[in-house]
């Protein structure tokens, strides 16, 4: 693939024999002279530890990139998801509130 064919936001297929055992897909975040920074969006479950170690990002040479007709729906790693969970109060934290009230 040539630099002119790569656009920011594209989902591309890639390979990396050094880091990951299987091909993967990623979203182009930055374009360099001979390579692109991909946010890994789809990968084989066998590579899960390596992808996590890479913080779901990898710089790949243009020669190792290819266009993807339809992005995979397998293992997806999104770096922009926000997870919200409700935290129930502990028994200890309610005791702290009670002691503060009695000190005043």
Automatic annotation (TrEMBL):
Protein name in UniProt: DUF2187 domain-containing protein
Stretches for region Disordered: 71-104
Bias (Low complexity): 73-87
Basic and acidic residues bias: start-end ranges: 88-104
Organism, as annotated: Lactobacillus rodentium
């Amino acid at each position: 693939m040539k630099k002119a064919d790569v656009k920011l936001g594209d989902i591309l297929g890639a390979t990396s024999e050094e880091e990951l055992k299987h091909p993967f897909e990623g979203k182009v975040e930055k374009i360099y002279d001979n390579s692109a920074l991909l946010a890994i969006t789809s990968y084989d479950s066998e590579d899960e530890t390596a992808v996590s170690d890479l913080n779901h990002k990898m710089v790949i040479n243009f020669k190792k990139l290819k266009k993807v007709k339809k992005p995979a729906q397998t293992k997806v790693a999104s770096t922009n998801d926000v997870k919200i969970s409700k935290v129930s109060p502990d028994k200890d934290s309610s005791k702290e509130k009670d002691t503060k009230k009695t000190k005043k």
